[in-house]
């Protein structure tokens, strides 16, 4: 089983970007934690980070040919991108949306996700654990379908 992990805009700044909201963990640390969990689960993970909407759309479309699922933190594009939503819908492979912060406890505009309605589920508010819970969730979802 192979899962593509997509990190959206500004997540490359984790560790220094608004640590009161996002914590001090870097993207490299998150990827390492996901890689370790993937090893425990006996699956493969691949990572993409893009600050560009089109780059994320391209990664989602490419995943259709060699991935069993996608774990995505679309970051700010969660609330704005119909293009990413349509790409998720078009590839028809399971997707779990994750967020470090609880988007529903922040500014009102962050409560609306264009991705959640076409995803298997959404996990938010648990910091790095949101990613780890998300990987476990997509793994379990795919295993149940096999």
Report the CATH superfamily: Dehydroquinase, class II
Number of strands: 5
Number of helices: 5
Mean pLDDT: 93
Largest sheet: 5 strands, parallel
User: Which structural class best describes the helix and strand composition?
Assistant: alpha/beta
Low-confidence runs of at least 5 consecutive residues? none
Order of helices and strands: EHHEHEHEEH
* CATH topology name: Rossmann fold
Overall 3D shape = globular
CATH architecture name: 3-Layer(aba) Sandwich
How many angstroms separate the termini? 11 Å
Give the DSSP E fraction (strand runs of 2 or more residues).
Answer: 15-25%
Radius of gyration equals 14 Å
CATH class: Alpha Beta
Helix content: 40-55%
Keywords: Amino-acid biosynthesis, Aromatic amino acid biosynthesis, Lyase
Pathway: Metabolic intermediate biosynthesis; chorismate biosynthesis; chorismate from D-erythrose 4-phosphate and phosphoenolpyruvate: step 3/7
Protein name: 3-dehydroquinate dehydratase
GO molecular function: 3-dehydroquinate dehydratase activity
Features:
146 residues, alpha/beta, Rossmann fold, 5 helices, 42% helix
Write structural notes for this entry:
By secondary structure, the chain is α/β, with parallel strands linked by helices. The protein has one domain (9-28, 42-53, 67-137): Dehydroquinase, class II (Rossmann fold), CATH 3.40.50. Helix content is 42%, strand content 18%. The protein has five helices and five strands. The protein has a five-stranded parallel β-sheet, sandwiched between helices. α4 (82-91) links the parallel β3 and β4. α2 runs parallel beside α5 (128-145) and α3 (53-66) runs parallel beside α4 (82-91). The longest helix has 18 residues, at 128-145. The termini are close together. The mean pLDDT is 93.
């Amino acid at each position: 089983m192979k899962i593509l992990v997509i990190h959206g805009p500004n997540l490359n700044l984790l560790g220094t970007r608004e640590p009161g909201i996002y914590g001090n963990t870097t993207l490299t640390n998150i990827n390492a934690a996901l890689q370790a969990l993937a090893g425990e689960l006996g699956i493969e993970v691949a990572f993409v980070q893009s600050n560009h909407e089109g780059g994320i759309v391209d990664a989602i479309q490419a995943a259709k040919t060699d991935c069993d699922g996608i774990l995505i933190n679309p970051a700010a594009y969660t609330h704005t991108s119909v293009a990413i939503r349509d790409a998720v819908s078009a590839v028809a492979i399971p997707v779990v949306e994750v967020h470090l912060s609880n988007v529903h406890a922040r500014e009102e505009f962050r409560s609306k996700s264009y991705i959640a309605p076409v995803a298997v589920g959404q996990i938010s508010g648990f910091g790095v654990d949101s990613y780890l819970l998300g990987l476990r969730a997509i793994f379990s979802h795919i295993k149940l379908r096999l």
